[in-house]
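Issue 218. Parser rejects a valid record. Input:
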Amino acid sequence: MSKLQDLRAKIDAREARIGVIGLGYVGLPLAVELGEAGFRVIGFDVDASKVRTLGEGRSYIGDVPSEDLRTQIDAGRFEATDDFSKLADVDVINICVPTPLRKTRDPDVSFIAAAVEEIRKHLHEGQLVILGSTTYPGTTHEFVIPMLLEGTDFEIGRDFSLAFAPERIDPANTKFKVKNVPKVVGGETALCTDLACAVFDTVFDVTVPVSSTQAAEMVKLLENTFRAINIGLANEVALMCEKLDLDVWEVIEAAATKPYGFMKFTPGPGLGGHCIPVDPAYLSWKMKSLNFPARFIELATEVNSGMPDHVVDRIAEMLNEDRLAVNGARILILGVAYKSGVDDMRESPALDVIAGLRARGGDIRYHDPFVPECTIDGESFKSVDLTDEALRSSDLVVVLTDHPNVDYDRVVTVGPRVFDTRNATKDVAADREKITKL
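Output the parser choked on:
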């Protein structure tokens, strides 16, 4: 029996030891789910403070209750470490590290490179390596393989296996969590695909094998590019409706009653999160290297990236109507996270809006029940309590994130005027003349 055949038997018997590199929004939920499936899991992270926190049984990810984490720790099925030499002890390695963009909008694969370098030091026969970080098509085949094979005579599919299986995490989504979102898997060989599917079949309700790592990488980019482009359309329609003196929210809700041929997307102050603002740029960058202009992506990016400035301009116009300037105006921001119900501020458009208002001299405060403090342009901010005094003392209240459990009726009644970029006040009945919507 070959060592890869032996690995399949160990996976089926839940005897394979699994490593997860990167214990963030993607890696930690996956690690806990693998533990619940019966595997012994080692989580790796370069952040020693995260390792300490997890070792104490405390989760810093909203979708992973600390109780679930402690259950796996107590059962001996999960441990966190910053000692990467323990990669030698695992049979399956999942790479779940960040893949941001550089300021030049080029892919930054340095975190992947660092993870792969650590794996290479401890790579042995019979291991399965799975890349889950979102990246451009060809990363696994053209970038990861040469790094792993350097200085070895290993052959993929004979000595060890390699696959790509993109994450599909949607923070705070209570309907679609890790297990009930189908898992796309593409291996470098058929055996690689089979082994990776065997691992994920223990966690996910459905696995979807595709023909190659490149196909799996493209699947992930298509999903998020589809969303970015359609959000760009919704944002452009919002700009059109503003010119036409129409309520874009009314238009979208009415269009969404069509039972076929229409999918509802909504406008907002800009794109946020790690995926939607970033992933299309990976595809666009890759296609530029092939002399193919990704015109839909570029246009959607132009529209979406312009929304924070548009929001700042609208705020200035509203203050001007009240004979006020942005300079010196007390502006209360509701929500700085990138989406409702999360503490995630990655690529949040609120950061650009606040920076734009501060550049014009605005006196900015914010309230966010999920983000107690943050840093914007090097300056620290703390969330203020949403008291009547905080509302009354503001010249304008701006809703940038439609968090739940905020009393928007009170915000409108007590506050001076409200600029709502998320339609959070749609159910407010009283004082609607005080509301201006995107």
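Fixed in the parser; the record now loads. The chain has a mean pLDDT of 94.
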